[in-house]
Design brief:
Belongs to the ABC transporter superfamily. With about 300 residues, the protein is of the alpha/beta class. It has ten helices and 13 strands.
Length: about 300
Amino acid sequence: MGEIAIKVDGFTKYYGDFKAVDGISFKVKKGEIFGILGPNGAGKTTTLECLEGLRTIESGVMEILGLNPWKEASKLKNLVGVQLQSSSLPPNIKVKEAMELFSSYHEVKPRYGLLKRLNIDNKLNTQYHALSGGEQRRLAIALAVVHNPEILILDEPTASLDVQSRIVLHDVMKELKDSGTTIILATHDMSEAEKMADRIAILLKGKIVVIGSPKEITASGSALTKVSVRTVGNSLEGTESKVSDEYYVFYTDNPGHKVTEIINLIDSKEDTLIDLRVERPSLEERFLEITSVGGVR
């Protein structure tokens, strides 16, 4: 497993009589990007807020770098960076002032280069309330990583971001991971989770219903693999395939066998293959499968 950066064991959280999180357990190793997915109300934000030390836990264990995030928050101050879904920055604070404030809090020099990289360096004297939603999100990300934290917690980091800003953020995340930073990523963007996360936990009604790498999770579902084929002639006409944009499309639970069968059929009819694509089920398809039936099949 490698050296453990985050340990959660039997974590439970109530709001009154409502059990928001029900005895979940997981470990995150150092330098890993760990995704947390789930529909609204699944317990994602509660889990993050407890990891961040913003809320106490009813039972179980939570440790970040061996420290209790609630009782030992001062020791974690310069070790953890947090980007929240909604910012609590004063509406009239300027971008430059926010950078100086967070840098002072973490006892580091302001990193204006981060603002330039995230394309908000031209907003140094703009007040927070005057920024667009995407600009506010980019500022929050810059403030979360200004002190090069060992642990970075990102809650919907790319919401409201344009395509270019998403690419920049993903590059920053990869660089942080390569330098040894451990990242917790909570997102509704399935393609982002599939692309960025080493492992993923899917929460449903306060419980973890599946945990593993994106490939492990998608491979465990009942969805079929899609094989799309385009040829010069019409050698695949009359098969069980569907036709879409000049491609014959097959769905199978045994892609290796199906591809061999298709190629043999094309050769036997002296046709010529132009293109062949094999697409495994996506994480989004597997997520919908899990959440629609209330658990793992």
